[in-house]
Amino acid sequence: MSRLAIKICGLSTPDTLDAAIGAGASHVGFVHFAKSPRHVEADRLAALLDRAPSHVKTVGVVVDPDDATLDHLLRAGRLDALQLHGKETPERLAAIARRYGVAVWKAVAVKTAEDIRASGLYRDVADLILFDAKTPDGADLPGGMGLRFDWTLLRDYRAAGPWGLSGGLDPHNVAEAVRISGAPLVDVSSGVENAPGIKDMDKIVAFCKAVQHI
Hints:
Elements (H helix, E strand, L loop, with lengths): L4 E4 L5 H10 L3 E5 L10 H10 L5 E6 L4 H8 L6 E4 L5 H11 L2 E8 L2 H6 L9 E6 L29 E4 L7 H8 L3 E4 L4 E3 L2 E2 L1 H12 L2
Helix pairs in contact: 1-7
């Protein structure tokens, strides 16, 4: 197993989930957000969660969810973490952590060094900070668009806790991304797809192998 954590996100079928697990992913992510091409309804999520072995961490990805949405989602099965990918405040993260007792991740959209610094607002309430590329104004999706940011912005980042890198990663550039940023966890979605929401099992395996050889 690589010393780096690997999250394959946006999984929606048993075959691609099995491919991610078999290739050595440490985390698997499932998107519950209706606007996303990777959206998974709670009933389908339940079947996928049942397939995930206990040593693989399961992450539910949500965008500005209300409690009713989270209640519904967490009834589906074992979710080890909730990844909040919207405009949630530190106070909202703390409230979710208290109510549900699961790890809470915060995706932080990055374009400039100031965005990196601003992530400090979540330092005391997020179990993990995930740096992702900022999407264009007016975009329907807060992530999963294959965009990347300048990884050198993370060179001087002094993490106070666990963190990861997302946004535009693929089997060909992930080694460079880790070398530049020093990321301890890498998160891929569109970079292992043939089309939005359509995962490619060979690309999933290639991504995991690329990380494992870093």
